[in-house]
Specification:
With 228 residues, this protein is of the alpha+beta class. The chain is built from five helices and ten strands. The protein starts with a helix and ends with a strand.
């Protein structure tokens, strides 16, 4: 009851103020009239029970839950690899031929004779500290009835020594004829000459379990010689 009385009292006061201000209504701007009306309505609503209940219910507004972001699907761990073409990186094997077919010098016959493992071969050819020498001996013969000029110095033929799986390249020698890898000589009719290839290897390789020499005409053909 007290709330209703208060509301009625406020309303009567507002009516009286409205009547008293009728004379000045024309002088007041519309903006001021709106402010007075809004203020008056606020006072009335503060004493209304229903209005208080509405305020109490809205003190804890419900906050909408944030929508969860969809998780990205992970790619499978075991992704199959694309097959590689067979032999894409491997080099084609060279044809295995005889020494004569490899050198291709008309009238010359070549053969492997022997090898020597040593620390010193001549005064000019000796192993340095921690080194060892392999001397591989060949023989070249002139099968014609005329002097035969032989020049292998510009052929670029390679000599590779394989000792127990380790490979070594031939070294230039101090032989008068240039050695087999740089052979440049003249062979009399029906005669033969010796030619050698020198390899310098670590001293630990002086007692091999297996050793072989590969003579290779790069990109064309090769021949393998077992040292014994």
């Amino acid at each position: 009851m007290s709330n209703r009385k208060c509301i009625l009292s406020v309303c009567l006061c507002l009516v009286m103020l409205t009547l008293a201000g009728c004379v000045q209504a024309r002088e007041m701007t519309e903006e001021k009239q709106d402010i007075i009306a809004e203020y008056s309505a606020g006072i009335v609503l503060q004493h209304a029970e229903n209005y208080k209940r509405r305020l109490e219910k809205q003190e804890n507004p419900i906050v909408p839950k944030a929508t969860q972001q969809p998780q990205a699907t992970e790619a499978p761990e075991n992704t199959p690899e694309l097959p590689q073409a067979e032999g894409a990186e491997s080099e084609p094997a060279l044809n295995q031929v005889s020494l004569d077919d490899l050198y291709q010098v008309s009238g010359m016959k070549a053969k492997y004779v022997s090898f020597k493992s040593c620390s010193k071969y001549t005064n000019q050819i000796a192993a340095h500290k921690g080194e060892w020498l392999y001397i591989v001996n060949f023989q070249v013969s002139n099968t014609t009835k005329k002097p035969l000029k032989v020049d292998l110095s510009k052929r670029g033929i390679k000599y590779l020594l394989n000792v127990d799986g380790s490979e070594y390249q031939a070294h230039p020698s101090f032989f008068e004829n240039g050695g087999m890898n740089f052979l440049k000589t003249t062979i009399p009719p029906g005669a033969s000459k010796k030619a050698a290839v020198v390899f310098r290897v670590p001293e630990k390789a002086k007692n091999p379990g297996s050793a072989k020499v590969t003579v290779r005409d790069e990109g064309k053909c090769e021949t393998e010689i077992r040292l014994k």
